[in-house]
Design brief:
Elements (H helix, E strand, L loop, with lengths): L19 E12 L2 E12 L3 E5 L6 H8 L7 E6 L2 E2 L4 H10 E4 L11 H11 L5 H14 L15 H13 L5 E5 L7 H16 L3 E5 L3 H7 L2 E6 L2 E6 L1 H6 L4 H10 L1
Parallel strand pairs: 3-8, 3-9, 6-7, 7-8
Antiparallel strand pairs: 1-2, 1-4, 4-5, 9-10
Helix pairs in contact: 3-4, 3-5, 4-5, 5-6
Bound molecules: adenosine-5'-diphosphate and magnesium ion.
Magnesium ion binds next to α1.
EC number: 7.4.2.1
Pfam family, one: ABC_tran
Keywords: ATP-binding, Nucleotide-binding, Transport
């Protein structure tokens, strides 16, 4: 590739095992007449970490919401771990189990303890016995480094701790992929690092991840690839280094100048 060519090909897996985990092909999404996602082609490899950046309203959330079927795409196809997304209810349940999602607002149940938040879906959806679900939850709390918070309620914890509980809750369903939608945007600055560190640990453990985040330090350290979106399109794709040193598109340069 000559240095002046803008790479918009997001189908070249650059990390992980090289095997494909998520495949999005010629995908379009409309909200009424509004064309929110335009001809998206993206592949994510097993154990690959892809960071998605772009201005507000560019379609980042819609993209990952389509991948776990919180939104239905209108054209093209999406395949997750060999399962093509369709309107079949069983298919939707299967996809939701494979893909965990972590939101900006942690969405914990305020009236349930940390332990109950984490074990709710494994017990009710996966029918895991209580003792086993509790043991797994404790292991996960160790992993996100807050085992001593097990019996607290969300309101008794900091934002960073709540987000780590939300990550533990997602992992309790043993997803093959975790999608993060600006997981640190609602946090006070001093809590951002603990959540990014948790995400980094997860990446190092080999989780396949798509992270919508503007934390470029995280991108530089953890991402295999960065995808820049604007106006519902994938505008530029490259390594984190590429975005720091050699962004090509005017829209990319403008956006980076605003966040870096
Ligand atoms: P981002 O996450 O990059 O900020 P979104 O994916 O949330 O962007 O939104 C992309 C565009 O789609 C925006 O213009 C937004 O207003 C529009 N949009 C998102 N969700 C809906 C919806 N449910 N109904 C109508 N428009 C929507
Ligand atoms: Mg968003």
């Amino acid at each position: 590739m000559s240095p002046t060519t803008v790479n918009t090909d997001a189908t070249e897996i650059t990390g992980g095992t090289g095997q494909v985990m998520i495949e999005v092909e010629k995908m379009h999404k409309f909200f009424g007449d509004f064309h929110a996602l335009k001809d998206i082609d993206l592949k994510v490899g097993q154990q690959e970490v892809v960071v998605v950046i772009g201005p507000s309203g560019s379609g980042k959330s819609t993209l990952i919401r389509c991948i776990n079927r919180l939104e239905r795409h209108d054209r093209g196809k999406i395949v997750v771990d060999g399962i093509e997304l369709s309107d079949d209810v069983r298919n939707i349940q299967e996809i939701r189990r494979e893909t965990g999602m972590v939101f900006q607002s942690f969405n914990l149940f305020p009236h349930l303890t940390v332990m109950e938040n984490i074990t709710l879906a494994p017990r009710n959806v996966r029918k895991i016995p209580k003792a086993e679900a509790d043991a797994t939850a404790m292991e996960l709390l160790e992993r996100v480094k807050i085992p001593q918070q097990a019996n607290k309620y969300p309101g008794q914890m900091s934002g960073g701790q709540q987000q780590r509980v939300a990550i533990a809750r997602t992992l309790a369903m043993k997803p093959k992929v975790v999608l993060f939608d600006e997981p640190t945007s609602a946090l006070d600055p001093e809590m951002v690092k603990e959540v990014l560190d948790t995400m980094k640990d997860l990446a190092n453990d080999g989780m396949t991840m798509i992270c919508v985040t503007h934390e470029m330090g995280f991108a530089r350290e953890v991402a295999d690839r960065v995808v820049f979106m604007a106006d519902g399109e994938i505008v530029e794709v490259g390594s984190p280094e590429h975005f720091f040193t050699d962004p090509q598109e005017e829209r990319t340069k403008l956006f980076l100048s605003q966040i870096l």
